[in-house]
Amino acid sequence: MSSRRLCLAFLLLGAMLSGALRPAHVTAQTGGLPSISLVSTFTGFTQPVSITHAGDGSNRLFVVEQSGRIRVIRNGTLLATPFLDISARISAGGERGLLGLAFPPGFNAKQYFYVNYTNAARGDTVISRFRVSAGNPDVADPASEQIIFTTEQPFANHNGGQLAFSPRDGFLYIGLGDGGSGGDPFNLAQSPGTPLGKILRIDPETGSPATYNVPSTNPFVGSTGFRPEIWALGLRNPWRFSFDRQTADLYIADVGQNAFEEVNFQAALSAGGENYGWRVMEGAHCFNPSTGCVTTGLTLPVVEYSHSLGCSVTGGFVYRGGTFPRMQGLYFYGDFCSGRIWGLRRVGSGWQNTELLDSTINVSTFGEDESGNLYVADYTSGTIFRITDTVTAPASTIQFSASSYQIPESGGANANVTLTRTGDLSTAASVDLTANVPPFSLCNQKTGVASPRCDYATVGGTVRFAAGQQSRTVTIPLVDDRYAEGNETFTLTLSNATGGSVGLGSQTSATVSITDNDGADATSPIFDVPFFVRQHYLDFLSREPDTVGFAGWQSTINGCPNGGFGLDNPQCDRVLVSAAFFQSQEFQTRGYFAYRFYEVAFDRRPTYAEFVPDLVKVGGPQSPQEEAQSKNEFTDAFVLRPEFTQKFNQPQFQSPQAFVDELERTAGVTLSNEAFLVGELSAGRMTRA
Questions:
Q1: Is the pTM of this model over 0.70?
Q2: CB-based contacts of 453, cutoff 8 Å, min separation 6
Q3: pLDDT of 34 higher than 70
Q4: pLDDT for position 586
């Protein structure tokens, strides 16, 4: 994303919301990015298309060659004998060949693995299981093949090929293209009765060893006309997807047609069923039809690039190694034609995408080893490069002090989670803290996963360390919900450590377990006055109540007829208590600050799911200085969100005057300094970000 694309949005939004302007600046999101190099590490391969490891503690790398061989690197040496050679069974060339390899969880005991190839007879996709030979762990038995899945391929291209086991559910995910040709002539990616143009999810580890089961939680199980194996649809040719080994989030790189390449994102807690748009959309643009396409129900990419920057995207991995702190949490992907390599990471609710290197290689695949080091392959030369950064070790690290916390649900309880900073503490530092958010469900549902809507106050935002500060405790209020749900958990994750030479330590996630104190469901606690008042502080102000306010509001409601319910006494009605919190100065300067961004930028109100995490970012107990910094960081992240960039990258908003006019229109104001802002933007002295 261009560094001169979005800054004026902050200036206009800031003027509309707070009446103040601040000078153009370099946003915090552009700092701390790696300066990467490709270090030639292994050579001697022919058309490498996949790099992976077995997860068995051997630290071996396995490299798939398109012609039908899998090669082994042990202790830094490429072994002469292939791990597997099935060249005679496959059709290779173009986009056909041996395309994927995956080792199941617990491979060390199982000693079998899975491959994805196009067969010699017709070029159809085959998913097979092979076993390692009894006498040599570095050689598999080609006679042990068990074919577990096949599907016809109507054309020679768009075969997909990726295989990967999810670290969250242990199931096998399979990437299949739309069947090929061009433009998906049979509309297979949107057709529910075919596996083509989809990501499938199967369980080949239980039941008959030669077949597979369909997980009962697959999104289309029982849906008429749908293949039950389908996990996601609307894909053209997903050439490499991967799971973040730490969060289990799924990143899908989908090769475009003639104009745009894209990367899609699926959160770990997704229930599946996403439709990524092809052939209705190519990237975030209408394809068929070319205009006026209906995007309802589609999940658009988190990032795209045009064919001025490349022609075929190759998906990579999120770096989770311990050597290069500036690469931590960054998703790497590249382009086969141009050799460009980008880094993508979450920034608040949006995404930051940065070109990291313009190389000369044909990027055919990325890979990671057991330690989390990242590699990239050059298809033409057969060289495997290790991706490195100039900064190799942080001067200080931030991490959780413990991996798990056990907290009772009893009324008014808090989860106090401690973050520690070690090493060089001479500069201030910060780190982003988030919690997993499960799919929506009623508060009395027994899922085992705690919900920020029902079980604890929403968590999110930036934790700051002053210079010399060694620890910070984050207090997360719990909700005593009166429902017998059993014990529930949620996971906290650290990311984006910034400030000086600071990185993430080894403990970047922590699990909070809430011990249920209810034996049976009881009356909703909202009728309880202390609960009612406390929830207003949590929901509107994102903090625990102060002593005076807590007592005052309880006294007010307890003095009302009927406990504050009904309109017999309007001045005592609980609805008016809610209104008072909404109109409070604290909410107006923080919560309404975030709320108003949606109206100004998008001409709409935020949804509950959007607003609550945003409120947490700017609310809570903060000093005036911290509040100002939180608002600046929130604004910087907001203008990087896909909805914002997709809207204001449209041709009609490219001129400075049109950009300013649109923001004024949606805000319903006319700025007195409009001409000045347009002039500064036109002259390049002020940016849109």
A1: no
A2: 440, 443, 612
A3: yes
A4: 82
